[in-house]
Amino acid sequence: MRRLILIVLVLLVNFAWAQESPKWQGKFEQLEQALPTPNEYRTGSGSPGPKYWQQQADYVISVELNDDNQTINGTETITYHNNSPDVLKYLWLQLDQNVLSDDNTLKSTSTSAVKDSAAAKTFAAQVSDFKAGFNIKAVKDASGKGLPFTINNTMMRVDLPQPLKSGEKVSFNVDWSFNIVDRSIYGQRSGLEFFPEDGNYVYTIAQFFPRMCVYDDYQGWQNKQFLGRGEFTLPFGNYKVRITVPADHIIAATGVLQNPQDVLTKAEIERFEKAKKSFDKPVIIVTQSEATAKEKTKSKQKKTWEYHADNVRDFAFASSRKFIWDAQAVRIGNKTPLAMSYYPKEGNPLWEQESTKAVKNTLEVYSKFTIDYPYPVAISVHAASIGMEYPMICFNFGRPKKDGTYTPQLKQGMIGVIVHEVGHNFFPMIINNDERQTTWMDEGVNSFVQLMTELERYPDIDWSRGKPSGIVQYMKGDKNLMRPLMTNSEQVIQFGPEQYAKAATALYILRETVMGPQLFDAAFKEYAQRWAFKHPKPADFFRTMEDASAVDLDWFWKGWFYTTDVTDQTLEQVKWFKLRNDKSKPESKNVKTKKGDLAAQGTTDKKYDNFSNGPEEFSLIETDPQFYGEFRSRVDDKGIMAKLENKNIYEVTISNKGGLVMPVIIEWTYKDGTKELEKIPAEIWRINEQKVTKVFVKDKEVTNIMVDPNLETADVNIEDNIFPKVQRDSKFDEFKKKN
User: Fold this and answer.
1) pLDDT digits (tens, 9 = 90+) for 132-171
2) Residue-range definition of the domain harbouring residue 449
């Protein structure tokens, strides 16, 4: 009967606890079940496995850019190496130019509406007669025999005459052409810009040849259709490319120019050689006056530029007679890559002053955080209203007014976009994630290192994207418009705030607040070194960051990457106590304390919204022997009591209203005006994910308490982070000024 009563009492206690405690959401449970099972290709530590493999695609390409009718004609030989353990009966190629063709999925699924008094330009693409897309003229094997092929929107399947076995390679040829898109109408990554004042073009050409899809251990062929947003996933290979253009054009391209003597003047070659030894400032290779002169003459002759690039995943180029060209050498480890810029006169004076400097800064800082930049060049090309990246070359906005003046905001935007796009050489051009499926792995990770570069090299500029304070406005927004970071690109609504800014902010907080710079930097560098020139997936990043730091971050990945939860910690209540110092302490047998309450018998309830009523007194009693169990040693009860005399004891209750578990950062302001910052790891929420109470013992009297005073956790409502509540207005104003 006694045992039955005990069981009933236990059940009642458990029932009461269940009624009081909030619903458990498993925020600290491990991610294993959500991540792919480790195997011999990708290990549980996040590193490539002992049997990791990846395919290789080598290209020999010849293209001609026709400046009279704005077309590209090309032919390519692709040599595809099957390093997989699988037998392949067909190959998949990407036809990204088809994204604008009449029968493409993008055109048929894009939504739109009619607005009164809308600009006529909004209908320009719909009424245009422009014919976009690849014209595939032929697909042939190495002997010249036609190969069967099937085009499905932006993908083309080439059927092989016999299966390609593991360890084998196959070569085949593709001939094609397409009309170059006017970017001012269609807004694409690749295309042309026309300058009516002098009748010339700037061509920024990418996705200009049929490119191999990735085939990997993770999902086989990555042949998800290109719908315009999810970018590109490509295998590494070696490129030999010949580009024929008007004789007075200057070309910027992926790789190393092989025939400068055929395409450059003697003066240009001398300046180019000088630039290779100039580490302190850029050398102007083609001057503005030289470019302006060519704008007027417009040669009808042709020249062919040849470029080679090894171990790259793509190739792009820019061409124009309008280009000014400068270059500067950069010391990176034992290499001296060239930082170079190409820009029409419309980019000056800003581009001559800032572009190559920004390229240099990017290579140096990114190399510090990841791996030494391995390629021979890094190029920034000026193009209107764009930021887009390819191996060794990128296209960037930032155009002054016609009189050459520009605002500080334009300069900041231009520097930011150059750092970002040059930084893409590392993510995803070298650490080669799947952009089509997981945007944050390149855009978000890259935006984070971009911020690190900006803060180090441009400290006088106010950078916001990637800082916790910069993401608050988005995090306070409509949850119906939010998607977790682990969402495919095409389904994301707020693309920039989420895949760029939120991911960058997550990593910034991870470095500055959760892990600390030393642990984070070592783990982040380990990830870069493990996956340089390979194809990492999210699990490889998550696992490597934990493996190299000994920090359990599953709670962090779950909250920031798998949910739309936000940080909203509220300072619910603060109770101030002092140990009763009179001699009338109650005897042990008469003291009755309520479970979970620090105050003992004799205390009175108070309104806990400020410190004006003074501290609540409480008593301690000598420890009952039963608390020691089998231990025979005893603590010094009186000594403990003596140490607590005149101490200020604060019982603080904080709730998690936003759902995102984060570290708790408390700033204590003392009566003498001094401050103390106390950081508590996020694991404080592991038992109760929605509300925690903790006792702090302080020597000095506290006048003010603030949670997250420097906005380190991106708390969306800092007005409820201050105690006493009566001080919130003045303290909140002070906080806003500081941040």
Assistant:
1) 999 999 999 999 999 999 999 999 999 999 999 999 999 9
2) 23-50+438-564
